[in-house]
């Protein structure tokens, strides 16, 4: 007769909590050998100890539960290969996060800009938008000026007018001198105006919505406003860093560890937005970023980021002599990759005005 362990004894033997064991039962990851029909109390067999310990070890590695279920179903050799591949991805992602941490330390440790700095730096910029190779119309909009950079990606039957309305509402900021002290308030007000403008283009019940990523230059710093899955990057000597976080269902699942990057790339809801202008969720991410001479900023729609890997984006940004060459190269790379969506890029260099 098989000896059964109570859930408490099994938890002690495996160093898993009873709460974790109940969760793994619900997820069909580690079913008890017997459940008392009257009390619902769980009992486990001694030969389940090895699987339970494997689950515990994989959780300590940070592997998502869905992935653990797959690994546990494999033979030992195949499971070992999966663990090795998982850890290689973790190390690669850790390296990227390490570089981002170094960038943030540098960003946060930089001394406050002086008024003298304000008159020494300026933006040189270019923008380019392309319909792509599949979509019948271009619903993206872009703007690049001495103070304002913006990219919007519209969706729905009136997505084109929606993205255009959002960008037009922000253009007034390009004509006003602003200081770092009040730039965030101005930008938040402008985004609220953009949301109202987007709502105004919907007619006869047609849907109208758009993402929006914008940077506003004060002469020494850049204020960011972001909502949706358009993106902003900065290229510095240390590498390429994404400074926005996608407001999508898939990104939220990635953040929670419930999807791997590979799973996210083919997820059927990868384009489903959690936030956008014109949809009743207009609250953007708003913050300040320091800028130094030599920085190259990129704003783009997901028509670029979804088909051109960040490593290739980085290579093209470094290779381009100026922003105009950079936007042409980036859009060209998206077209070479099939360009299933509209592709829009804005690139701006922070340069010494005296140079």
Question: Short description, anyone?
Answer:
With 355 residues, this protein is of the alpha+beta class. It is built from 13 helices and 13 strands.
User: Distance between the terminal alpha carbons, to the nearest Å?
Assistant: 86 Å
State the secondary-structure class. alpha+beta
> Helical residue percent?
40-55%
Whole-angstrom Rg: 25 Å
Please write the string of helix (H) and strand (E) elements. EHHEEHHHHEEEHHEEEEHHEEHHHE
Largest sheet: 5 strands, antiparallel
What is the count of β-strands? 13
Strand-residue proportion: 15-25%
By DSSP (H or I, 4+ residues per run), the number of helices equals 13
Based on Cα principal axes, name the global outline. Answer: elongated
Which ranges are low-confidence, i.e. pLDDT below 50, for 5 or more consecutive residues?
Answer: 114-118
Strand order of the largest sheet: 4-13-12-9-10
Mean pLDDT comes to: 86
Written account of the structure:
With about 350 residues, the chain is α+β, with helices and mostly antiparallel strands. It is about 40% helix and about 20% strand. It has 13 helices and 13 strands. The strands form 3 sheets. Strands 4-13-12-9-10 form a 5-stranded antiparallel beta sheet. Strand 7 and strand 8 (about 220-225) form a beta hairpin. The relative contact order is 0.13. Mean pLDDT is about 85; it is low at about 115-120.
């Amino acid at each position: 007769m098989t000896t059964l362990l109570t859930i408490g004894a099994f938890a002690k033997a495996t160093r898993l909590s009873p709460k974790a064991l109940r969760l793994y039962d619900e997820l069909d990851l580690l079913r008890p050998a017997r459940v008392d029909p009257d009390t619902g109390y769980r009992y486990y067999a001694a030969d389940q100890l090895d699987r339970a310990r494997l689950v515990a070890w994989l959780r300590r590695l940070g592997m998502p539960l869905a992935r653990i279920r797959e690994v546990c179903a494999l033979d030992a050799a195949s499971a070992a290969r999966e663990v090795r591949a998982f850890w290689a991805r973790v190390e690669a992602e850790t390296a990227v996060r390490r570089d981002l941490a170094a960038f943030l330390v540098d960003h946060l440790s930089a001394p406050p800009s002086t008024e003298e700095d304000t008159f020494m730096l300026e933006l040189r910029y270019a923008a380019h938008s392309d319909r792509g190779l599949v979509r019948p119309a271009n619903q993206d909009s872009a703007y690049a000026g001495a103070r304002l950079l913006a990219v919007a990606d519209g969706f729905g039957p009136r997505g084109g007018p929606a993205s255009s309305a959002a960008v037009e509402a922000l253009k007034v900021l390009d004509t006003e001198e602003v200081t770092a002290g009040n730039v965030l308030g101005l930008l938040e007000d402008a985004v609220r105006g953009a949301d109202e403008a987007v709502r105004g283009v919907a007619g006869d019940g047609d849907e109208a919505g758009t993402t929006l990523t914008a940077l506003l230059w004060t002469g020494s710093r850049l204020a960011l406003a972001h909502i949706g899955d358009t993106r902003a990057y900065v290229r510095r000597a240390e590498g390429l860093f994404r400074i926005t976080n996608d407001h999508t269902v898939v990104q939220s699942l990635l953040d929670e560890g419930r999807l791997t990057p590979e799973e996210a790339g083919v997820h059927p809801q990868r384009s489903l937005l959690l936030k956008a202008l014109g949809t009743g969720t207009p609250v953007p991410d708003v913050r300040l970023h320091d800028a130094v001479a030599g920085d190259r900023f990129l704003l783009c729609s997901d028509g670029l980021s979804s088909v051109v890997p960040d490593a290739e984006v980085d290579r093209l940004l470094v290779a381009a002599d100026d922003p105009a060459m950079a936007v042409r190269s980036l859009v060209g790379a998206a077209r070479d990759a099939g360009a299933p969506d509209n592709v829009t890029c804005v690139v701006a260099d922070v340069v010494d005005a005296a140079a």
